[in-house]
Design brief:
Rossmann fold; mainly beta; Immunoglobulin-like; 6-stranded antiparallel beta sheet; 800 residues; single chain
Length: 800
């Protein structure tokens, strides 16, 4: 093995012109936790001083594995002497020059570099940490550097926690395949909260959290976990590659979950190297199948490689893609551990779409809407890693956005956001966000004018961004059907400082506007409704109107009343059924063929519809009609669902060239209660001129409907409601078949507080109550276990 590692101030400086530098960014993933200790994660509200964190002028020589440079979270660093450390592995020989991190608050830490321990190497050779507190061994091996006592500044900017002067003369040197760990130990009773980026699309963790590691006692280790978001700590390591570097991959196109199974994809990535790139490929995997390889090209010779392909899936599929690159020296980068992962998610067609973007009330809001029996479909931006562009391409009666510092809607320039087309076509919107202005970096005093998104779409003319002091009580408009009941008795949102950043929002005065709420100081408008310039009915609330649902003494009467009044003002029509059809192919060649598709149906009501009919039809714009075909009688029971995967419809060879529409309807024929369709194309010849017929000259449909009597298909535990609670909360466990169920409540020390179930239960839904009358306020964990089917834990909060 060649002895190429230089000493600190000798040949290391002399080789500086030859070496290539890179930034290795540590990966911190947040897994669903079954245990939570002192370390917690908190959504990082938009900073009052700084929002984004961009790399410096050396951006072109840094290698970054972060999704972007925006910090989304602040992380509790654990208790005294606890350790937060990130695992790395040298793809090729390298030495460390310095390490930087970002912190949200000051404190004292001791910084170390360790070898990856032999025990962890044997158990977790990829370096990926298991779930929190589930590993018996520490990832920390031999101490290579440290302790370095560092006083964290906590200014939300890059801080050098290991500098060149901290590196020993012999260097911090690693050969290909060596594993090492960089992190810090909390050594004083102070915050020192590191910042983190949301990387939920990735799905693997290289960060270990545990300790105290240095007191000689056994402790549990695992990923840094709390909640559902997956995050990456804002850490970067400056290294040099004396024998040449592997290809560096940055800015791989992200992809959120999709509500449509088919999409024309355009994926790009920046791939650089110290010499030249030989090949770059995209590896694409569907579910657990072997990945396929799609070669990428760099048409503009700017290191941006790209590929186009058609994604074809069905609801329930999981896709992932990553970069595989080779340089002209044979060095390989397999970016599988930084893969983008996304699901195809079925979202039923209902009257209302509720989009949640960091409101912190997601589960409770969803459960309460269901209790109020509004027909709502839900999309959680955090859970689904973004907003799907196809989601708004439907005939929604109303869209509600619950947010806390969201950038889903701009203030000034129109963009290519998912909501633009829906709103510019006159779509109705309820927007609740106390930090809309802050998230878009507006000044304290704001004026909008025609051409600004906020003016044209939201009807917002002037505003005050986070005025102080802020309001916690709001007066409704006397006589108004939405907020009149709060004209004298105020709408109270509680006293939590995190939710007391109400904006003053003043609408355009055009005769359509109604001020819905004013602050306790009358005249400070906090919410309004109007008809915007596109004809859409808009209600905008510049304070956290959802907050009463989360406040013990208010929950949930005020919020339910407000939302019932507001939704009733839109005069939404309730739908009886929801139905979707998903084609697998849309082109028929030659003498005929088959269309393959999936059908999803749901009875949204508690009513029965005996003797209904399902039928199919084919039409074109010239008046051609074929149908009804596949007429099938069925009795629709309350809340019944059915689906058919891989149905196929024969298309006869005599059909002329052209564009056609295939429709599926359910109702009392010929009156359709619900209809869904897709377009397909017929061409007279196969590619290459083959006109052979497949012998199908009819319009038959094959495939049996799979009906659901209402029994669950998988074992699952619902979210407890209410949560936080006092003194009671309820939870349900669904079983697809007779099974043994163990349901136990634990405290934060892992001690059993109550055993709610331990025995055999029949298939169906089973409800349980947690009685906290004799329990102390605090955090508890409810674990449901069904052998071979379910092992699920959720956090409960008892607030007195």
């Amino acid at each position: 093995m060649s002895n190429w590692f230089p000493t600190r101030f000798g040949s290391k400086m002399e080789e500086s012109a030859m070496r290539s530098q890179a930034l290795i960014t540590g990966i911190l993933i947040l897994l669903m936790a079954s245990y939570v200790s002192a370390g917690e994660i908190e959504k990082l509200l938009p900073s009052r001083t700084q929002i984004s964190f961009t790399l410096d002028e050396t951006d072109d020589v840094w290698m970054s594995r972060m999704t972007d440079d925006i910090a989304d979270y602040q992380l509790g660093s654990g208790g005294l002497d606890d350790t937060l450390a990130v695992h790395y592995r040298a793809d090729v020989a390298l030495y460390i020059n310095s390490v930087q991190m970002q912190f949200n608050s000051p404190g004292t830490v001791q910084v170390y570099v360790w070898r990856y321990s032999d025990a962890a190497e044997a158990a977790y050779p990829e370096g990926i940490s298991p779930p929190r507190a589930s590993a018996s061994m520490s990832p920390l091996g031999e101490v290579l550097l440290g302790p370095i006592t560092y006083e964290v500044q906590g200014t939300e900017e890059w801080e050098t926690i290991i500098s060149v002067s901290d590196i020993p003369l012999e260097g911090l040197n690693f050969y290909e395949g060596d594993g090492f760990v960089i992190g810090f130990v909390k050594t004083a009773d102070s915050e020192a909260r590191p910042m983190a980026d949301d990387i939920s699309a990735r799905g693997t963790s290289y960060t270990w959290f545990g300790g105290p590691w240095n007191n000689g006692l056994p402790h549990t280790w695992g990923g840094y976990s709390s909640g559902e978001a997956i995050v990456e700590m804002m850490m970067r390591v400056d290294v040099s590659y004396p024998e040449g570097t592997v290809p560096a991959i940055r800015n791989l196109t992200p992809q959120c979950d999709l509500s449509k199974p088919n999409k024309a994809m355009h994926v790009t990535a920046r791939v650089t190297d110290d010499s030249a790139i030989d090949q770059v490929a995209l590896r694409l995997r569907k579910n657990t199948e072997d990945p396929i390889t799609l070669m990428m090209s760099d048409p503009d010779l700017d290191d941006i490689f790209e590929v186009d392909f058609n994604l074809i899936g069905t609801f329930g599929d999981t896709f992932s893609y990553w970069i595989y690159a080779i340089d002209d020296e044979g060095n390989v980068t397999n970016g599988r551990d930084a893969a983008v992962t996304f699901d195809i998610v079925y979202v039923p067609n209902k009257s209302i779409l509720i989009v949640d973007d960091g409101s912190v009330h997601t589960d409770i809001i969803r459960a309460t809407y269901i209790d109020m029996e509004w027909q709502c479909a839900f999309w959680d931006v955090v859970e689904h890693n973004g907003i799907d562009e196809f989601l708004l391409d439907r005939d929604w009666g109303l869209v509600i956005i619950n947010a806390h510092g969201s950038k889903l809607l701009p203030t000034r320039e129109y963009g290519d956001g998912a909501f633009d087309e829906y709103l510019m076509n006159g779509g109705d919107l309820v927007y609740i966000d106390q930090d809309y202005l802050l998230a878009n970096l507006e000044d304290e005093s704001v004026v909008f004018s025609p051409g600004d998104f906020a003016y044209d779409v939201l009807g917002l003319e002037t505003a005050l961004n986070d005025p102080t002091p802020s309001e916690s009580e709001f007066y409704g408009k006397e006589g108004d059907p939405i907020t009149g009941i709060w004209a004298t008795q105020t709408y109270v949102i509680g006293d939590d400082p995190a939710f007391l950043w109400a904006d003053v929002v003043n609408p355009i005065v055009d005769g359509s506007e109604t001020v819905l709420f004013t602050g306790e100081a009358v005249g400070m408008n906090a919410a309004y409704s109007l008809v915007n310039s596109y004809g859409g009915s808009i209600a905008f609330m510049g304070f956290d109107a959802n907050q009463p649902i989360f406040v013990e003494e208010l929950m949930p009467t005020s919020w339910q009343t407000l939302m019932n009044n507001l939704l009733a003002s839109y005069e939404l029509e309730s739908e009886s059924f929801s139905m979707d059809i998903v084609p697998h192919n849309t082109v028929i060649f030659g003498g005929g063929g088959r269309l393959y598709f999936d059908v999803y149906f749901e009875n949204l009501s508690g009513d029965s519809f005996p003797g209904m009919t399902l039928w199919t039809e084919v039409t074109d714009t010239s008046g051609f009609y074929a149908g009804p075909n596949n007429v099938e009688l069925m009795d629709i029971t309350p809340f019944m669902t059915f689906q058919n995967m891989d149905m196929d419809k024969c298309v006869p060879g005599y059909l002329d060239r052209g564009k056609y529409q295939f429709r599926v309807s359910v109702g009392y024929y010929p009156e359709a209660t619900v209809t869904t369709s897709f377009d397909f194309f017929k061409y007279p010849e196969f590619p290459g001129g083959d006109t052979a017929s497949n012998g199908d000259n009819n319009w038959s449909v094959e495939g049996d409907l799979v009906t659901d009597s209402g029994l669950p298909t998988v074992a699952a535990m619902t979210q407890a409601y209410p949560n936080p609670f006092n003194p009671e909360t309820r939870v349900s466990v669904t079983l697809p078949e007779t099974s043994r169920l163990n349901l136990v409540l634990y405290n934060v020390r892992g001690q059993v507080v109550a055993e709610l179930a331990d025995g055999t239960f029949p298939a169906g839904e089973h409800q349980f109550m947690v009685d906290g009358a004799a329990m102390a306020s605090g955090v508890y964990f409810l674990r449901a276990f069904v052998p071979g089917e379910l092992n699920q834990t959720q956090k409960l909060i008892l607030m007195r």
